[in-house]
Amino acid sequence: MTAAPRAVPQQESASASTQTHAHTHPALAAGSATRAVRFAPAAWTDPSALRDAVTALEAAGVTLIVLGDDFTSGSDALTTAAWLGPATSTALLVPELPVTHNEPFHAATGTATLDFAARARGGWSPVVQTTEEEARLVGRRSAAPVAQAWREAVEIDDVVTRLWTSWEPDAEIRDEETARFLDREKVHYVDFSGTDSVGEEFTVKGPSIVPRPPQGELPTVVTVDSPESADAAARVADVVIVTGTAAEAGLTPDTLRTRAAHAGRSVVVLSEVPQLSTPGDAHAFVTQVQEEPAQAEEATGGSSAVSPAAVSPAAVPPVAAPQAEGSGDS
Prior knowledge:
This protein is of the alpha/beta class. Helices cover 33% and strands 15% of the residues. Strands 1, 2, 3, 4, 12 and 13 form a six-stranded mixed sheet that branches. Strands 9-10-11 form a three-stranded parallel sheet.
């Protein structure tokens, strides 16, 4: 007879609607300037050229690099970011991670691994999939309406964060005398239950099989291009990237900061983030950045100017969160 496994302590729950990440990267510290770029999925057909481009961007002062993932082309942003981790030293590496048809547990373990590979410089950007073509690639459920896909993304951010922190900071003891790697009393079940984008319940038991990431909790970056993504960003994002589509819909940086403040959060809001389709685009951007100081001095007669690609986090005054009218998504 096999003995029943010993129970792992239960992790305390936290509402997705009030989830706040404890990130430590200097690029996201209050008062610092965040200069960001985004690589399109096609940009890393030549990995060596991508690596050279990323290191050049770091040297030029870029502090946040997003790697796009379209879910359909086969380009895997998470794996690519982990590969770039040891080759880089300062920039926050943020892969887009398709979440609608992927397992939350895999999202948590993959991003935690990234944070180890990048030496506490990992982030993640959940993106949703809403087409039948994308649904057929996996085949386990139908396409999701955009509103429901983003609602599910909020729940996934919640359970991913719980899995990251299912290991307490001092859970690893590495005791050679007793041959124990961890203190099992400091590794916890998460016992999460949520509703996916087509209305089916999903559960995650936990704990994670990857130790707590060096940062504890990775920064969440949300690209806002619709009212639905704006709602999700207000609830879970540490960094919001504003697209032209969002601006046309009236979702301005000030609007997004206010929404986040009403949810009890303070966010870094970035606009005019350069989109790089090839490593060559990155080198051209580096040249532009290097020329900015001279151009700014010439235009202002000696005073400096700030590039639109470098946006400092705005100080958001504390605003009381509104009373919930019903139960949360979790």
